[in-house]
Input
Amino acid sequence: MNKHILLVMMISGGMAGLAGMIEVSGVAGRLMYGISPGYGYTAIIVAWLARLNPWAMIVSSIFIGGLIVGGYSVQTIGLPSSMSLMLQGAILFCIIGGEMLSKFRVKK
Output
């Protein structure tokens, strides 16, 4: 079982690296600043929020996507668009902190 997991991880990592190499060399032709919008970090927050449940990931990704789009639209009232990134970080800290605190019990 562990060999299969390791094999699948190696294959998927290789495919992701190959896709990145094709994106850089084929489409852009060179390595450019800002070619990756940082969706990997957002996916970590979505996975933690959904607790690795595939159906909950749909709901949490719609929530986080709305948060990102809303972050760009708050620029009209004078707030920076990075407010959505700050909210994502706060959500991640609350989720991780809540899971960590739920493992401990307070005794009198």
